[in-house]
Amino acid sequence: MSEHSSTFMAKAEIKASDREHRNKINFNISKYDAVVPVGKQQFTDVHLAREKAKNIKWKAIETLDKQLETFEANITKRGAKVIWAENAEQALEEILKICQAKNCRTIVKSKSMVTEEIHLNKFLEKHNIESVETDLGEYIQQLDEEPPYHIVTPAMHKSKEDVAKLFADKLGTSPTLTANQLTLVAREKLREKYRQAEIGITGANFIISDIGGIALTENEGNGRLSCAWPKTHIVITGIEKVIPSMTDLALFWPLLATYGTGQKLTVYSSIITGPRQVNESDGPEDMYVILLDNGRTNIIANEKLRESLYCIRCGACLNACPVYKNIGGHAYEATYSGPIGSVITPQLREMGEWKHLSYASSLCGNCTEVCAVKINLHELLLENRHESVDEGNAAFAEKMAWKAWKQAMLHRSFMNMGSGSMKSWMINTFMKDWKNRRSPLQFPKKTFHQLWKERNKGT
Predict the structure, then answer these.
(1) Cβ–Cβ under 8 Å, residues 288 and 346
(2) Region 388-416 average pLDDT
(3) CATH 3.40.190.290 is the classification of domain 42-294
(4) Which of 39, 224, 268, 433 is the residue whose CA sits 20 to 30 A from 350?
């Protein structure tokens, strides 16, 4: 068992037994479940919309090299600079170069899971550069020195009272503030950071190939402020975020809003095609777009797992997953949690260390059922399991257990050996993990095979 697997099991067991944690998650997800059906009503045929979106992403990923080259050509015409980063180290190095060139001491950051993936905040802190999260959920998590809990709602596991206590401890406010008052406190603190920041960093919901643009969709306006107020704007995005045409947003923005938060459309939807132009009064003086690979081309090379890159990060599969709802986002110890994280993390990192995530699933198929772009997530989880076995990552005890099971399945006489009480004793004595979370297993006195023979007189 890998170190990550052991930690996962320990954290999962703690959270699964934490009733308060489960109540908070169930409460927040129940709110989500109530509004998503309303958002779906905007589609004449939501299944057809999802199928069309999947086909568009299929085209984008199958022609990814051409799409990205077209994007680069178009956005550089308007003065932006495109940087290709093969891994996290290269991306961090390029960001540091830009910061040093701009004498940057403060960065405001918005809407970027990729910066969590490359651990940007810790890297900048080592170089005495302050990086401030401006999304309210991310800001709460940063104050609490925790990573995001959820792809869309980073502080889903915290109640209003938790946030009030956190603000009281960290910012010196009253512990009895209402939700509106807490939001105003955060707004006041963050506005000062916007004024101080030399650089703004954002992610990208979509990379638009045909116009050379970055699409951002959000509900707080912090993304728009982060990319427009500071003199320099840096976009950090995975190469898989590309879509072929701006017209595709008419489908993807409503889908992302509905499956992400239950809205018909998010409050702020922006398309950024470069730095401030000669005839424009607002916007940054410089714009950089860092296109990050960091293992994504390995997934593209895998024909069976390739469709996992269609993901638009709506978070629907997390909200639907019975495992996620019981153990929460932090147990995964990965940037991307839930079903989609369990699929891509072993591929982006190292299968032997992270294969356990693909086994943390009931394979109920609910993640596939709710996916906005119809990714066959439960089948991809099975494919990861298959690959981990092919690569020889199974433990010796696991291999022996499956060999014994195979022989029992192939030979009826083996299954008929021993009485029910003997089988019960063996399971309850030697399979200790079974009893850790379950009551003792009791086999019936007679097997189905015996009962069948008795009732049918041996025929």
Answers:
(1) no
(2) 84
(3) no
(4) 433
Give the residue carrying structure tokens 């629907």: 316
Q: Which H, E and C letters describe 246-311, residue by residue? A: HHHHHHHHHHHHHHHHCCCCCCEEEEECCCCCCCCCCCCCEEEEEEECCCHHHHHHCCCCHHHHHC
Token reading at 412? 């009826």
Tens digit of pLDDT for each residue in 326-384?
999 999 999 999 999 999 999 999 999 999 999 999 999 999 999 999 999 999 999 99
Please, which pLDDT band fits residue 434 given cuts at 50, 70 and 90?
confident
pLDDT tens, residue by residue, 19-51: 999 999 999 999 999 999 999 999 999 999 999
Alpha carbons 60 and 67: distance in angstroms, whole number: 7
The Cα 276–Cα 265 span in angstroms is 27
Residue 200, strand partner residues: 108, 233
pLDDT the model gives residue 420: 83
What pTM value is reported for the model? 0.91
Helix boundaries (H) for 172-268: 179-196, 222-228, 249-261
Domain limits of the chain?
42-294, 309-390, 396-455
d(CA 186, CA 177): 12
With beta carbons less than 8 A apart as the criterion, state whether 423 and 443 touch. yes
Q: How far lies 295's CA from each of 104, 117, 138, 145, in Å?
A: 29, 11, 25, 27
